[in-house]
Design goal:
By secondary structure, this protein is an alpha/beta fold. Helices cover about 45% and strands about 15% of the residues.
């Protein structure tokens, strides 16, 4: 069984946009490196990463939920090969954070921020096994630079995140973690 990587990101990017295509590139790179891609299973970054992985012959898991579909009608991305369904957003997010071997966080909004924060908090207190948490791009670098204050967050907890600029760097970080855990 290949390592499962959860990818978080905005539902708003359209095909052809920079963030959609970056997610598609990430999906391709993950599949080519032998990883299984897991995302929220819908549109935007989720679709882009699923599409890229699918096109590269990788396995794609979409983690969907009834509550999201009530909030914003939508359906499972056609690029997903396996669906895991939950009734609530909370159950869906906990599954995505805990049932994976690594996490990549692409640009996004409130939902993506909450996913990053939950993963980081779970890592901080030992709620989940140690795994790479990799925010990608300038949005997260700026957000975290504004948020991190050493009066509240110690350096070893900041180090639980591995900020990178590009999808290629994110996959390189994952590969190093996988190779070092063998």
């Amino acid at each position: 069984m290949s390592h499962v990587i959860s990818v978080f990101g905005s539902s708003t990017p359209e095909p052809g946009s920079a963030d959609y295509e970056a997610a598609r590139d990430l999906g391709q790179r993950l599949a080519q490196a032998g990883f299984t891609v897991q995302s929220g299973g819908y549109v935007g970054v989720m679709e882009g990463v699923s599409r890229g992985a699918n096109e590269a012959g990788g396995h794609v898991i979409g983690v969907t939920c009834d509550q999201i579909e009530e909030f914003r009608p939508g359906k499972l991305s056609p690029w997903v090969k396996e669906e895991v369904r939950h009734p609530t957003v909370a159950e869906r997010v906990v599954y995505l954070v805990s049932q994976c071997d690594g996490i990549i966080v692409m640009p996004g909004g409130i939902g993506t921020l909450s996913e990053l924060a939950l993963a980081w908090s779970f890592a901080q207190v030992g709620e989940m096994n140690s795994k790479p948490i990799i925010p990608v791009g300038g949005l997260w670098q700026r957000t975290l630079a504004a948020f991190v204050d050493q009066a509240y967050i110690c350096p070893e907890h900041v180090a639980l995140l591995e900020l990178v600029r590009t999808p290629a760097e994110a996959v390189d970080v994952l590969a190093k973690h996988v190779n070092s855990s063998r």
